[in-house]
Specification:
This is Tetraspanin. Interacts with claudin-11/CLDN11 and integrins. InterPro entries: Tetraspanin/Peripherin (IPR018499), Tetraspanin_animals (IPR000301), Tetraspanin_CS (IPR018503), Tetraspanin_EC2_sf (IPR008952). Belongs to the tetraspanin (TM4SF) family. With about 250 residues, the protein is mainly α. About 70% of the residues lie in helices and about 0% in strands. The longest helix is centred in the middle third of the chain and has 45 residues, at about 80-125.
Length: about 250
């Protein structure tokens, strides 16, 4: 019964190491996604420290690949030193992922205040020319999120660009995608997106942080299982001199 349990632990551990390799790719993808998305919304959220969880997630993903390699070798060879190293590294990564979750929640709570503080300045800096980074950012967000203005399209009336153009219209990025003849005129508000962008930008950024949080939580749970299985193998390996190796030719090193 005991030997059956330990064999199961070893089998699960090998399987988990394969999962760690897959997890490494997924975590790196999540981190890269956060970087790419942040680049689209960085004008609305100027606190670059928000990227810390994404940086850590990519680092953890890279480390998980190495952990998977160490874990597979240590489990198959059943090396006490290798398994002990595997458990210690897993514990350190687990602690790091807990930190990522905490930072994720902290920065998620700060998103609304940060966007509220910067969005007015971004809209006031709009000049309608494509080479301008702020203008491209606003047009991109309004098209992607299907919104117009900060709270609604009437906010454009208070911008410098609106007062200078004097044509009583908003940017074409405010026009509903299905309309090909929309000119952005405020005399036809039914052609424009009615929802403001601030709430949608906040929602989008908070969703991104939740991706990081859920990814960290999911793989932290897998690592806990990995540590448990490795500890079971180590304990049995230490107490049972007749311990059965997983494969023929394994080592007791």
């Amino acid at each position: 019964m005991g030997q059956c349990g330990i064999t199961s632990s070893k089998t699960v551990l090998v399987f988990l190491n394969l999962i760690f390799w897959a997890a490494a790719g997924i975590l790196c993808y999540v981190g890269a996604y956060v970087f790419i998305t942040y680049d689209d919304y960085d004008h609305f959220f100027e606190d670059v420290y928000t990227l810390i969880p994404a940086v850590v997630i990519i680092a953890v993903g890279t480390l998980l690949f190495i952990i998977g390699l160490i874990g597979c070798c240590a489990t198959i060879r059943e090396s006490r030193c290798g398994l002990a190293t595997f458990v210690i590294i897993l514990l350190l990564v687990f602690i790091t992922e807990v930190v990522v979750v905490v930072l994720g929640y902290i920065y998620r709570a700060k998103v609304e205040d940060e966007v509220d503080r910067s969005i007015q300045k971004v809209y006031n800096g709009y000049n309608g020319t494509n080479p301008d980074a702020a203008s491209r950012a606003i047009d991109y967000v309004q098209r992607q999120l299907r919104c117009c203005g900060i709270h609604n399209y009437s906010d454009w009336e208070n911008t410098v660009w609106f007062k200078q153009t004097k044509n009583n219209s908003v940017p074409l990025s405010c026009c509903k995608a299905a309309l090909s003849n929309c000119t952005g005129s405020l005399t036809r508000p039914m052609d424009l997106y009615s929802e403001g962008c601030e709430a949608l930008v906040v929602k989008k950024l908070q969703e991104i942080m939740m991706y990081v949080i859920w990814a960290a939580l999911a793989f932290a749970a897998i690592q806990l299982l990995g540590m448990l299985c490795a500890c079971i193998v180590l304990c049995r390996r230490s107490r049972d001199p007749a311990y059965e190796l997983l494969i023929t030719g394994g080592t007791y090193a």
